[in-house]
Amino acid sequence: MRLAIFAALPHEAKKIVTNLKAKKDAAERTFDIYRANCRSIEILVVITGMGTINALSAAKYISSVFRPEIILSVGFGGALYEAASIGDLIWGSKFISVAAPVENESNMPDAGKHIASTGNENTLSILQDLMQIREGSVVTIPYLMKKSEIRKAIPGEIQNPVCDMETFALAHFCEDNGLRFFAVRSITDLANEDIPAELGEISDSSGKYSVMRALIIFVTKPCLLPVVFRLAANSQIASRTLCSFVRAFLDSLQ
Questions:
Q1: What is the b/e burial string over 10-33, where b = at least 16 CB atoms within 10 angstroms of the residue's CB?
Q2: What CATH number does the domain containing 83 carry?
Q3: Residue 119: domain span
Q4: Which helix (H) or strand (E) holds 241?
Q5: pTM of the complete model beyond 0.85
Q6: pLDDT given for residue 58 in this prediction
Q7: How many domains does one find in the chain?
Q8: I want to staple 252 with a disulfide (CB 3.0 to 4.6 A). Which of 2, 49, 79, 126 is the partner?
Q9: 10 Å Cβ neighbour count for 65?
Q10: How far apart are CA 45 and CA 13, in angstroms?
């Protein structure tokens, strides 16, 4: 079996890579790939960079070269529901886009479209016997938005919604190409906490974290540092729960 695990940023997958003893592929690409094996499962961990364009580009490449049977999207998420705690795991059963269509990408969906996951109920049931995980909806946004704005753009009745910047593109790609798709998000910021838009500028055009950009922002806007420290601490908790999830997910595939 071939499994491709997608994450946007290195710190979302760092503990997963370490736990799997995955080795970095030496080939030069716009995104990083780590390879591992777990029993009969051949695994790629793919660090795509932020945003739907980067996620979709990586998915096309991995699908054509590696030919995975399953794509698993993992990463951090912002809670849009009130009962969240830091590190909570949300299993995506519905995927929603509030992004504008991507220019020159004819196969990207229009804003506001939904994809309901099918055939994943049994896997979720197995996982819920192994760990704490909630069923929910993943809302993909085009940039860092205020939570109040996101909630206005999505149906009010959806279950345990969380926001990110990549998942819908991957779900749409897998639906079009007949690939099994799963997604999970670990909460790093609560429903009443907004991430400043300036923090979206710490990544370069490829979606990768840029130390230089971060230094410039923090020097010019030191008021952001408390938010950064809080998110860093929350991310440590979230990365641990993601690592535990991947281990349980691999067990569910046996």
A1: ebbbbbbbeebebeeeeeeeebbb
A2: 3.40.50.1580
A3: 2-253
A4: helix 225-253
A5: yes
A6: 96
A7: 1
A8: 126
A9: 10
A10: 8
